[in-house]
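Students often ask why we bother predicting the structure of a whole assembly rather than each chain alone. The short answer is interfaces. A chain on its own may look different once its partners are present, and contacts between molecules only exist in the joint model. In this exercise we take four input lines together and write out one structure for the complete complex. Read the inputs first and try to guess which parts will touch.
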Amino acid sequence: MIFSSVGMIPVMSSDSQQGTTTIRVRYAECDPMGVVHHAVYPIWFEIGRTELLRETGLTYRELEEAGVYLAVVDLSVKYRRPARYDDLLTLKTTWNDSGRVKITHDYELLRHGECLATGRTTLACLDKEGGIRPLPESLMIGNTDEN
Amino acid sequence: MIFSSVGMIPVMSSDSQQGTTTIRVRYAECDPMGVVHHAVYPIWFEIGRTELLRETGLTYRELEEAGVYLAVVDLSVKYRRPARYDDLLTLKTTWNDSGRVKITHDYELLRHGECLATGRTTLACLDKEGGIRPLPESLMIGNTDEN
Amino acid sequence: MIFSSVGMIPVMSSDSQQGTTTIRVRYAECDPMGVVHHAVYPIWFEIGRTELLRETGLTYRELEEAGVYLAVVDLSVKYRRPARYDDLLTLKTTWNDSGRVKITHDYELLRHGECLATGRTTLACLDKEGGIRPLPESLMIGNTDEN
Amino acid sequence: MIFSSVGMIPVMSSDSQQGTTTIRVRYAECDPMGVVHHAVYPIWFEIGRTELLRETGLTYRELEEAGVYLAVVDLSVKYRRPARYDDLLTLKTTWNDSGRVKITHDYELLRHGECLATGRTTLACLDKEGGIRPLPESLMIGNTDEN
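Now the answer. The structure tokens for the assembled complex follow.
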């Protein structure tokens, strides 16, 4: 049986793009409380948006090779119920808006349909020197202004 | 020369407790952009509040041994400037309020006085079974109601 | 398309059990050299042996729930070529021997058939108090003496 | 009181250089067994050799800025006793030999004088493109041939 930790079943909608990733909790991601440490969730969110981007036919690796960097400038997470070792989780990632230089993603982490956590990140588009630059056309997909 | 990553110089005030921790950036904490990965900041915040608690004469380890667990239920971080490998950073942690079952901390990460990031966490007090329980008296220090 | 990071295609042989896991390199697993940090490989090895165990119809989570703990007492890794961000890697895990209280696994990490690293771990079987205890029958699978 | 996690008290000898670093165990470094996860030790070893290098008047950051990269090509760890959350540990790092392109370090992790783990790493000297290059003179310190 194949479990996916980075697979993506994209669900398109008129003004956003959404995808689902399955994540198997690693032992090293859990703490002495026997639950996933809170600092792991941002790493999973990064996987969610990476796989959502891949579904658009683009990879973040290609973006960096082209000199386009996306840096997290804002992060928020609400932890509702603990995730545990070996849980098979579902991460719903929504690319809900793109500005001229920023992208916002929303995340919902589920276990058998039960919401464990929600989160939001804002990415800023940078050049190789770390200066702000406009998002390339290829990253305007989620932009409501574009739809 | 001794650099502290967990030392604490507490600064008391009428309605809060604040402390400063020095953190040396580890190579493993940095990513291909050559800067600290955003998921590392919550780990540093945890160090900040742990050392601030230690200054009150209590350790989180003792709390868990006594069946008192503090779980992060809310996290937010604003990333302003990148931290880099080998930077010697100053983390200011403020224990700015305690409720009946929750504690809020604010964080400011500085490099030579320049603010790199700010953050806030809310902790909920849990028992060994993971159920909400009132904060013990010993954790009421930061509570304005107590001052 | 579904990529597996924890899937397992077991290959049985007379005196060992072997399985293959696919791992997608995470951004947070890479360092300023632009390659996977060397401390990440032991985490992947843990995934490899966890999934190999799952293929035997047992999960490590169930073992711990039954009071059986497997602790790494010996680790060695040879790094031959760097793994890079977003690489899709193949991890071959071989459960090549079980003693009375220890299990040895060998690992081979591949990218498109090219060997990037090899490793070996030895696990000791512990009880809830951390004392050495005999391996349960269910973990004798790989033991050549048993075959 | 100030605890050092990266301080270094160097002890010179005729054919090696040795230093001691104090490490406070972070909560995020511990796993559901309530002990430090085995993949954390290589990160501590990296701190140990980084601080030992600093004592020679050189920093690894400066080396990379000069186009000299040190990549781990071999790692081994023996885990004897578990390290626990909030432990204050002593890491003894010995720079015991330098070859023409490689450096070997030995590590001993102690808690109140009790050995918890030992390890060894071999680093290869690389240029910016990842090709093998000779060690610069400044890294020949530990080389017995040089003494």
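Check your guess against this: Strands of chain A lie at 11-13, 16-24, 69-79, 88-98, 102-111, 114-126.
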